[in-house]
Each structure stands twice: as structure tokens, then as C-alpha cells.
Amino acid sequence: MIEEILRPEREAVEDALARLLPDEAWPERLHQAMAHAVFAGGKRIRPILARLAYRAAGGDPDAVTDAACGLELIHTYSLIHDDLPAFDDDVLRRGRPTVHVAFDEATAILAGDALLTEGLLVLARYPAGSDWAERRAQAVELVAEAVSARGMVGGQMEDLEATGEIAGREEDPKIRLDRIHRAKTGSLLTASVELGGVLAGVGGDDRVAFADFGASLGLAFQIADDILDATASAHDLGKSPGKDAEAGKLTYVTLYGLDSARERLAKLEERLVEEAARIEGPGGDLAAVARFVARRRN
Questions:
Q1: How large is the average pLDDT for residues 74-102?
Q2: What is the tens place of the pLDDT at every residue in 98-133?
Q3: Which residues lie closer than 8 Å to 101 by C-beta, 6 or more apart?
Q4: Long-range contacts for 18-24 (Cβ within 8 Å, ≥24 apart)?
Q5: pLDDT at 248
Q6: What is the pLDDT of residue 238?
């Protein structure tokens, strides 16, 4: 069932990305590096979430596909920078050489910078037309805040600081771990769901429900990611496994243990299905995506 939902959603996103990010542009090497990262595959979960959330609010998701693609461009920027030698120093991403390996480190940094700004530009432009102006402004503010020093980038910074500090710090490491990943991974996923609501004109408690579901989904995504890093192969992951443990990173597996992390993820999956039902009714597409995220194998 999940592939029946995801396949047409991915196709809509891929078509829009190909239109929004031409592969032949000046400067050629920079755009080649950007395309290398963006068109390497991927689940396209963030733009799909925005489309499904917009549909759950009663709209035609095709109206917001271009805007939703801004999320994917920004997410890809973060992956390029995560893979750099100064961060995770990874050589594989989605089964292909990372950008700094396929090109060079300076080009990778610039490709990431370009995709971040391109993503915000897409959100500022789409959906086009004066009728959308206020919602576009809200969308840009929402996503920019999510990836700012108070969101994703701040979470990345604290993740660096916490590396090698699983124990021996005054603050409860469980509190710190949740804070890191609610920012590093969760903030953009939260914004992805909330973006669909914002573009649909959802406000008040209804918008809070969208944000709550996105935050829970972000946490589930990170716990699943930590479990996969500890258990999956490079073939399954499309990137190098076991790097978190080697680096001494603070993760749900290193802190709670593998079995406890799996139990925590299973409980979170149940909560996600309940939160999705408040948005779209029982048995909807958002609930199916939540189960997919919690049970993913790559």
C-alpha cells in the first residue's frame, strides 16, 4: 500500500525538480555538483509530506508541488555539508560518491550553499500569483526558521559538541539527545508537514496538530536512522554504516541500547498514527507514511 502512495508522489516531485533545477546553467561545474546530489535518488519524504498535508487540509497537492520542492533542495544542501570531511567525512550518499568525492571539497561547499538559497528562492516564488503572496511569506519564514541556528543548524552544532560526550556531562544526556535531534532532523520534517497546512490556510489549533505530527515524525525518523546505522549494511543504507558509533556520537542506540531504541520507536509509531488521524481521519496517507518511516530499512 505504501508504494501505491509514494510512487505517484515521488514522480510528481521528480518532475518538478527537473523543471526547477536545470542541469545546464552557469557556472557549469557548480550546477553539475548540485544535480549530482539532487538527482541521486532519495525518498523525497519532505516534499511528499508537504503535499499530503496540503491534501489533508482539503487542497489539490499539485498546486503546491513546486513550493514543496524547496524543502528537498534545502534538505539536499544539508546532506552535502553533513558528508564533508569536517563533519561526517562520508564517501557514499544514496549509493553514489558524495559531492566532495565526485568533485572537490570547495565545490561541495558551494553546491550546498547554492541549494540552500535556491530552496528559499523556490519557496518565495511558488505558488505563483498575488493571491498566494501572504502564504508564500509565511512559508519562507517557517522554513527559514526551521533550518536556522535555532533549528537544524543549531542542532548540527550541538551534535558536533556532543560527539564523544555520551557520558560525563552534568546535563541529562537523554534531554540533550532529544534536543539535538528535534532540531537537527526534526525541525525540517516538522516544517514540511506544517508547510502543507500553511499553504492551505490552516491556522490555530489545527496548525498545531500539523506541527505536532511533524515533530513526532522527525523523532521517529532519527531513531530509525540510528538503528539502521547500527544494524544495516552499506548496500542497504546507500552510505557508510557504523560511523556514529566510531565517532562516539550521541544516538538513541548508544544511549538507550538497540532493544530499547526499537521499543521507543514502536511506541512513537502508535502515537504518530493517532496524531495523523486528528489531521486526516483514520487510515489516511500521512499515517501510512509514518508507518513507513518507523519501519524503513534504508
A1: 96
A2: 999 999 999 999 999 999 999 999 999 999 999 999
A3: 91
A4: 20/66, 20/69, 20/73, 20/122, 21/73, 21/118
A5: 74
A6: 63
C-beta separation of 122 from 213 below 8 A = no
Grid look-up 555520551 returns: 166
Contacts of 40 (CB under 8 A, 6+ apart): 93, 94, 95, 96
| pLDDT band with cut points at 50, 70 and 90 for residue 168 | very low
Q: Kindly tell me the sign of the dihedral angle through the C-alpha atoms of 217, 53, 135, 65.
A: positive
- Tens of pLDDT along 36-53? 999 998 999 999 999 999
Q: How far apart are the C-alpha atoms of 190 and 142, rounded to whole Å? A: 10
Which letter does DSSP use for residue 248 in this model?
T
> How buried is residue 189: exposed, middle or buried, by Cβ count under 10 Å (0-12/13-18/19+)?
buried
Q: How far is CA 159 from CA 47, 164, 176, 274, in A?
A: 25, 10, 9, 30
Nearest in space to 49 (alpha carbons), one of 294, 298, 286, 292: 286
CA dist., res. 190 & res. 219, Å (int): 10
Report which residue type is found at 66.
Answer: D
Count of C-beta atoms within a 10 Å radius of residue 31? 17
Cα–Cα distances (Å) from 72 to 55, 69, 156, 164, in that order, read 19, 5, 18, 31
**Start-end of H helices in 200-257:** 204-231, 234-237, 243-247, 252-256
Which pTM value belongs to this model? 0.93
Q: Is 96 helix (H, G, I), strand (E, B) or coil?
A: strand
Q: How confident is the model at residue 24 (pLDDT cuts 50, 70, 90)?
A: confident
Quote the percentage of the chain above a pLDDT of 90.
84
State whether residue 202 is helix, strand or coil.
Answer: coil
DSSP class of residue 92 equals E
What's the CATH superfamily of 2-295?
Farnesyl Diphosphate Synthase (1.10.600.10)
